Amino acid sequence: MARFTYEQRFELFKLRLVPTLAMNASQPQPPDVSLTDFQAKIRDMYLEKDLQRGVDGTFMWLMEEVGELASALREGTAEEQAGEFADVIAWLATIANIVGIDLGQAIQSKYGTGCPGCSRLVCTCPMDEKP
After folding, report:
1. Residue 38 burial (10 A CB sphere; 0-12, 13-18, 19+)
2. pTM across the whole model
C-alpha cells in the first residue's frame, strides 16, 4: 500500500468528497445521527435477534463486513464504500449492545480529551506506533 502524508490523504479525501457534496447540495439532507442515537436505533431494530445470535456469531458477521469494506476500499465506488462503512459500524454497535457498552460514552472516555497515546488533540505519536 502506498504511504501518503496527511496532507496528501486529505487532498485525496477532498477530491472524492467534493463531487458528492456538489451532487447532493440541492437535495435536502437529513440531520446527522449521533453514535448514541444510531446504537439505540440498531438496538431497537435487532436486539432480540442479536441476543439469540450472541457475541461469537455477531462477531463473525462483523468480520465479514470488515472484509467487504476492505474489498470496497480497493475496488469499490464511493457509494459502495459508504455502505460498507455503515455496515461495519452497525455490526460494531450490535456487539456493543449485546455486551452492554454505550459506544458514545466509551469513545468520549477514551478519545474525548485527545489522543490516548500523547494526550494531544492532534496526535504527535510516531507513525510506527499505535494509536
Report:
1. middle
2. 0.74
Q: What is the pLDDT of residues 61-87, one digit of tens each?
A: 999 999 999 999 999 999 999 999 999
Question: CA-to-CA distance for 77 and 83, rounded, in angstroms?
Answer: 10
CA 127 and chain centroid, separation: 21
Residue 73 placed within a domain = yes
Task: Quote the number of domains for the chain.
Answer: 1
Alpha-carbon distance of 122 to 124, in angstroms, equals 6
Say which residues have a Cβ less than 8 Å from residue 103's Cβ, sequence separation at least 6.
35, 36, 39, 92, 93, 96
CA-based torsion, 6, 64, 34, 32: positive or negative: positive
Domain span at residue 70? 42-100
How far apart CA 72 and CA 68 sit, in angstroms, is 6
Map residue 113 onto helix, strand or coil. coil
CA distances from 110 to 18, 43, 115, 116 (A): 31, 23, 8, 6
Instruction: For residue 38, give the amino acid letter.
Output: F
- Residue 99 and residue 56 in contact, taking contact as beta carbons nearer than 8 Å: no
Residue 121 lies in a domain: no
